[in-house]
Fold:
Amino acid sequence: MTTKRKDAEMNDPVNRRKNERIYLGKTEVISADLRYNKTETSVLNVRIKDLSEGGLGFLVKRPELPVIKEDKYLLLENITGSRDLHFLKSSKLIVRWLLDIDGLNHISFGCEFIDLETSKRKKLKDYVSTRMVISSWSVYSDDQTIG
Structure:
């Protein structure tokens, strides 16, 4: 592979991903309560937009946004909307990127799990894989057959 091709792939967000991820649509709401540090009393409720073994993306409404910058550590205190993800409670995250576009009501964040236990990482990988299989089934309508 040439250097140009490697560079192009590293700049392409799809090819740069290490882990498979699922994207949550408008109808599926999975939320998380995030704390900025252990001594902070307030919690930020966010809507998760994507999830992978390596991390998650979330949206925050602009008026509700505290100062969150890249490399900021967060604690995932609680997760709602899917009982299958309760094991992520108390997981540590680090903000890797944010997308703040003037005129939009939300700011988008990408976070990486920090020191996620091997058992939790495996559960998350299995969850994502299962969801990907289920969503691939939805490409067939009721009147089509497989085979």
